[in-house]
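Listing S7. Sequence submitted for prediction.
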Amino acid sequence: MFIDRFGVSLATRDERVSELFAHATFRIFAHQQGVDALLLDAVEADPACAGAWALRGLCQILLARAATVKCARDCLASAASAIDLAPSTEDERALVAALQVAVHGGLRRAAGILEARISLSPQLLLFAKLAHALRFMSSDGDQLTTGIETVLRHNAPDADGMGFMIGCLAFGHEERGDFARAEALGLEAVRRQQDDAWAMHAVSHVHEMTGRHRDGLDFIERQRPIWLSCNNFALHMAWHGALFHMERGDVERALQIFDEEVWPKASADFRDISNAVSLLYRLESRGVPLGSRWRSVAEAAAAHVEDRTYTFACLHNLIALLSAGRTSEAAILMAAMDRPAGPGNDQEQVLRRLGRPLARLMASASQRHKANSDVSSLLDALSTLGGSAAQRDLFLQILAGEASAAGDRKGLQDVLAFRARLKSEDSFARRALEQIRRDFPITA
């Protein structure tokens, strides 16, 4: 048995497997490329390493597509066979147990399994990072940093990888609206761990939510050499930069970033599609001509019309298809969303409360039909969608637009009040309030 540098015990007899596992762990922490290749090397060296199979499967789950969930199921089968045929550790069995429920859509329960293991072995920073990612995807903000806080309480501040944990804690505080604490922690994390892109991301969110767009641009550009070395997380950091430029009124620069850094080529990754969709929608809402840009993004979205794995991804795909006028494919996607997600799948409640009614609302609006959905009723469900508050803000803007178009003064005011609880400075709200005064005879 070997214990890797981040405290995970593996039953393998091959020290190189433990080293490969630790290298993969570091790259997960730093959002760097090459994780899958390292784990494939590990299982090739020792096919009986259940931990490596399970970690690869959990990474596939986080990609949230039908094809990657299938790959995760294959990894689970290999991990289960490894446990049957060879010794395994408690850490490995916990990873496999988490993967077992995650492949059926139980992301929150998978996070809970990992956190239970952390409570017994608080040196397991990898488990904390994975649980953080799973809860982020399932919008479980109240427990977003449960595992992170446990490892921070029980490990020395200078222990290997602790800077990454502080970066995760910073993001949790940002999502809860404690912007001052989030910024301080994020900057501390970057000082401790200069390649902590997630901490940089947390600070960028603070800049976005507090309207400090110049500070955000300066910070992102200073950190550019670090985040450019990331995997496709670099595209998301570029997205933040484009938002800052847009808010400062430089839409030409925002479009340039879209072309060169946010959507430089077509991608199947839901995160890349979401970045592209949300930036294009915001720009188009401000009257910016987009040329043929929707066409490329819609083409990528059209490849996933039968895939309702993750509601967050489905809704972004739907926006792309509707914006490009691909209504028949949008209808196929909506039909897929109407299929039950299955027992134990966290997404069923998200689809029922938010995904399906919001999809119908957007589709009706695109056809200039009067929508029957109550905008106000969707607001409370929005927090279940997953992603960050800044990402979900796209749907607040959509709901505000639909309420305005329908003459729903109360709905529009409810959306603005909801946004006011999330953002301390809000240029969108200022413009919407002007619209209320202009379009409605009785003002707030």
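Caption to Listing S7: primary sequence and predicted structure tokens for the chain studied. Residues 66-85 form the longest helix (20 residues). The mean pLDDT is 93.
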